[in-house]
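Quick question, first post here. What does this chain look like in 3D?
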Amino acid sequence: MNISVIGAGGWGTTLSILLHYNGHNVSLWEHDRAYSKDLNKCRINKIYLPGIEIPKGITITHDLNQASSNQHILVLAVPSQFMRNVVRKFDYNDVRNTIFVSVSKGVENKSLLTMSQMLQDQLPFLDSEQIGVLSGPSHAEEVSHRIPTAVVAASTSIATSKSIQAAFIVSYFRVYSSTDILGVELGGAVKNVMAIGAGIIDGANFGDNTKAAIMTRGIAEISRLGVAIGARTETFAGLSGMGDLIVTCMSKHSRNRFVGEKIGEGKTLKEILKTMTMVAEGVETCRSVKQLSEQHQVSTPIIDEVYKVLFEQKDPVKATTDLMTRDMKSEV
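> Answer (accepted):
Ran it through. Tokens below.
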């Protein structure tokens, strides 16, 4: 198939290489003209995926029209808060028969839409069967080295989810199919907020017991919120829920856990973000999911405390203490 990856960050670059070696005709779009030229010349993404060669068979371009026209699949690897600005530039005639696959993990600010919902909002001519997502515990740093990984391809159409599954699956990248697109998206997005909380625990040196509590009660919050919005409970026990939560809360590769860790050590959010070249999706998604929980009247105490630490300068130790001293509850 002809497949174009929109966004040449670490994940977009990794997926373009995977798809190339899976036999597809692959294009990779980079938004910065100068960096696109550098990628073409060096064939290594020195900023976002150092040390991994980009095969010469992959077309690297800064031309969005070139990247989006005559493609069977468009893989959207742009950070969620910038995705709309990219997709609004697509020409209807170029993409009317294309399958869109979002691999970004976030909820849009203001609109409070997931990426699949945003696509239908921004490109109303698309049929729901043309929209899918790919999500799960999958750090680019590991997938690029062909470390065994399992993820989920989801769409409201089982045929579409299986088409995405077939396009991506290789010996080291196992893809499962699902029709719960909303659950798969929300699991991937909200776990980034929980990972910030887990990082705060690491930075403040609370210990493994505390981190396990945050992760376990975190998946309970994600599930409550997801079900209230229309997702299925069982999705959050799978790869795109608990699986992604585990890897993002535990891994040295996790940008969201890193943000939380530095906050736990005493740094401010502004100081931390200044030092980062990659986007920590959980920061802005925290704003969105807090609003979603209020809109749907769902109790999300961990999300609420992470929000207060990030945006209201609440002391991380006080936030943890407040979580621990809430009124007694039943676990289920």
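Residues 2-179 form a domain with the Rossmann fold fold (CATH 3.40.50.720).
The beta strands are 2-6, 25-29, 44-45, 49-53, 59-61, 73-76, 99-102, 131-135, 149-154, 173-178.
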